[in-house]
Each structure stands twice: as C-alpha cells, then as structure tokens.
Amino acid sequence: MPRPLTGKVVIATHNPGKLREMQELFAPFGVEAVSAGELGLPVPAETGHMFSENAAIKAHAAAQATGLPALSDDSGLCVDALDGAPGLFTADWAGPAKDFFAAMQRVERELQKRGVTEAGNRKAHFVSALVIAWPDGHEELFEGRVFGKVVWPPRGTQGFGYDPMFQPDGFTETFGELSSERKHGIDWSEPAPQALSHRARAFLTLAAGCLQKA
What we know:
Family: Belongs to the HAM1 NTPase family.
Binding site for Mg(2+): 74
Radius of gyration: 17 Å
Cofactor: Mg(2+)
Shape: globular
Strand order of the largest sheet: 2-1-3-4-5-6
Order of helices and strands: EHEHEHEEEHH
Strand content: 15-25%
Active site: 74
Number of strands: 6
Keywords: Hydrolase, Magnesium, Metal-binding, Nucleotide metabolism, Nucleotide-binding
Helix content: 25-40%
C-alpha cells in the first residue's frame, strides 16, 4: 500500500520550470515543496538506463541529504522516427547551457537527415517517471505518458524544454502555446479527474496513492 505524503517535500530538481509545475500540482494538498536547487544540493550522476532509475537516483540522494521525503521527475521526449531519441538524453541534447532551442533544432535536423518531412512520421511522446523516496529508503514510483507529434518551427513561449515543438494528439496547439492550467491543470472536484501532460498524468496516480486534499 502506498505511503502517505504530508508536510514538506524536496523536489529533486534544479529546473525552475519543473519546480513551478510541481508546486502548482501539490498546492491543493497543503504540501510545501522546495527544490534541491534552493537547498544547494548537488546534482547526482544519472547513471540509470530507464527514466524510473534516474528518478530514483535523484530522489534518494535528496532524501538522504535532507532527511525529508523527496520527489524526483525524470522525463523525456521520445521521437518514433529517431528510434526513441532523445529519450534519456533529452536534457543532454540542450548542452551545458540548457539551450533547448538548440535541442529542438537538433531534433529537426535529425529528422531531416532521415528524410522525415512535415507529412512524414513525426509521432512522439513525452514520458514522466515520478519517484518519491523517504530517508529510510522506501520509495514509490508513478508514471505518465502523453502522445502527439513534433512540429517545426516551434510555436509558443509557455512551458519549458521541448514544449514549443510538441503538439499533443487532439490539439492544434503545442505545449508551448497552452497555458499552464490547460497543460497540467487538474479539476480535483471531478469524480474521475483527467490530466493532459505526462507529468500531470503521473501526478494523478501519485495523488491517488499518497495524498489527501488539504
């Protein structure tokens, strides 16, 4: 049975965009979320071979360093025509400067090398693996995915990362054109709450198992 999460949680990230999303998702549950970046924690080496493994590495490192429960999201963009790339290397493609426009350019460049035009196979999906780790070593894993396609040129300035080039199925807008409320907002008053983004979908399962409304 999943362990309840209350009080204060460390979000094991140095990404302000990701922290902002997680704080908004936790807000209805009265859980205070602070980031590893704010606490000056180092970034551990992500040596896993799956999103869930890398999320666990970051969550356990933050939990051990702070004595608090820690949540880590490891997520990425997987493009079908690129054999799932950038995948685990989604952040690495942005380089040390975290230049995600350059990363999006690389995605498009690799697609062009393979002869993939606007009419070709541009299917892609985002994956999010959320791991909560406690200082005693206990952990919980929750995953979410959203399917769509990559577009060029990128559109919109909302969100972060590859959002401006990802258009979810059933939408004419990219994630970069959707407000944060439309992208990962959840109506908790609904008997069966729904979510759009991969991170929000993973959070739905986390909330069902570990959280109670404030």
